[in-house]
Specification:
- 2 copies of one chain form a homodimer.
- With 206 residues, chain A is mainly alpha-helical.
- Chain A folds into 2 domains: 61 residues, Homeodomain-like (Arc Repressor Mutant, subunit A), CATH 1.10.10; 118 residues, Tetracycline Repressor, domain 2, CATH 1.10.357.
- In chain A, α5 packs antiparallel against α10 and α9 packs antiparallel against α10.
- The longest helix of chain A has 19 residues.
- The relative contact order of chain A is 0.11.
- Chains A and B meet through α7, α9 and α10 of A and α7, α9 and α10 of B.
């Protein structure tokens, strides 16, 4: 939402009209982003698809990049299943494999790939990506917390940095170098992150 | 160069007119990319800056995204100093620190950051990024070759994968998550890559 539209000026309670409008607009944005190249995206077609007047979209979201940023924020708000298998090794493998499967499965990959690519196109989108990944890394750091509780890692570890290490090589292939991402790359990323964590490389205390 | 413009149709010998035109056009493209947001880039202003007729630019490069892709290809062609300090540990640290310094120093960062960001905007640019990073990884794999010669690593290692591991976390912060990139992050990436290499994670033989 733009800064000049604070929550108390519209009904934003869960299930309220404003929340339903947002859900419809986010769904329409995701559908458009998945179907069209960035250059062909317009507020008008999102409005038509969502059944919302385009003036409302311009007022609340500012424009197409604001819609893309909010679709990403909406994804970040959703609960994300964090592996809890009982070992850090397996939890990290599942985290990496989940990224790999999401972005390589022909059925699953379309929307998240298009959403991240579209967000990389604007400053608003880049800020939303930063918020999105910061939230994801913080949530997934639970695998490190549990490993500390089990005595697998020492208490000073930066869990977000561990998660970042296990997944960065995958996003790097997908969105920067365009190199293929196979099971092997995911396994390697998880195994390398585990080794580094055990060696104390992610400890916060120097 | 577009596929319909094979080298033998124009004078492409080093120092020839065609090579000088390309050098002028690449320099003008880099200057424009560094100064303006992607949306404001035009073939016309590159043409004016390079002192080349815009019809020539459209014919040889197709458009702005072709110019950006060729500027990246031109960068990939340039020799890149690969560290050779005598230890793999220090070579990897220097590789990672070079990326970190290039993209965080206020003087150095502008052009390469703008060039990669611009390339991420189009399919042509993405293909050029893939070629660019494939070449970089292959060149820098010399640090692994030398480590094998010194007996620091076993002969089966995939040197490009080692280089990728030492640098992926940095590009991930810079171009995807927008998280800060400090000395510590560069040191961690190099140290984690070294641990993984020593543990045999990058060995090509299964």
């Amino acid at each position: 939402m733009p800064a000049d539209q604070p929550p108390h000026t519209t009904a934003t309670r869960p299930g309220g009209r404003s929340a339903r409008v947002r859900a419809d607009v986010v769904a329409a944005t995701l559908a458009e982003v998945a179907e069209k190249p960035y250059e062909q995206l317009t507020v008008e077609t999102v409005a038509t698809r969502a059944g919302v007047h385009k003036a409302t979209l311009y007022r609340r979201w500012g424009g197409m990049d604001g819609l893309i940023a909010d679709a990403l924020a909406s994804s970040a708000d959703q609960a994300w299943p964090i592996p809890d298998t009982g070992t850090l090794d397996e939890d990290l493998r599942l985290l990496a494999r989940e990224v790999q499967e999401t972005f390589t499965d022909p059925e699953l990959r379309t929307t998240p790939t298009a959403l991240i690519s579209a967000a990389l196109r604007s400053d608003l989108g880049a800020a939303a990506l930063n918020t999105f990944f910061t939230a994801r890394h913080r949530q997934a750091a639970a695998v490190a917390d549990r490993a500390v509780e089990r005595g697998e890692l020492s208490a000073g570890i930066d869990g977000a940095e561990l998660v970042r290490a296990a997944t960065a090589p995958l996003y790097h292939r997908l969105f920067i170098t365009g190199e293929p991402l196979d099971d092997r790359a995911a396994e390697r990323a998880a195994a390398a992150a585990l080794l580094a964590a055990r060696a104390g490389l992610f400890d916060t205390a120097d």
